[in-house]
Predict the structure.
Amino acid sequence: MLQLKSLLKVIDNSGALVVECINVMGGSRTASLGDEIVCVVKRARPIPIETGPSKSGTQSAAKLKKGEVHRALVVRCRMEVRRLDGTYVRFDDNAAVMLNKQGQPLGTRVMGVVAAECRQKRWAKVVSMAPKVV
């Protein structure tokens, strides 16, 4: 369960490292696995400084900067969540994947495990990018 002021790790390559939840979409006070939240970037990757003409055009700059407000999808949370078969799942950290306003992922890769509840809540694009679904 995540609420206002909860800190989450970002597990995609959008440029953000740590985000803080400022709102839960859908009218609830708390967010769980597979829920969409609004968050602010607290820590981001440093932007590389170009010293001369770029020889390799394949370098991707960070898409997100500190202080920007974006939506995110909760893919892991520390508090245990009960599944329909009666089992409980709990992760070591709170983690999210950054989204744009249309609900598409900002990053192109997801580094880390994603909960199976994301597939049940119709987040197939995020689940397909994840290396493992638990």
Observations:
- The longest strand covers residues 16-24.
- The radius of gyration is 16 Å.
- The beta strands are 7-10, 16-24, 36-44, 69-76, 81-82, 88-89, 95-99, 113-114, 132-133.
- The chain has a mean pLDDT of 92.
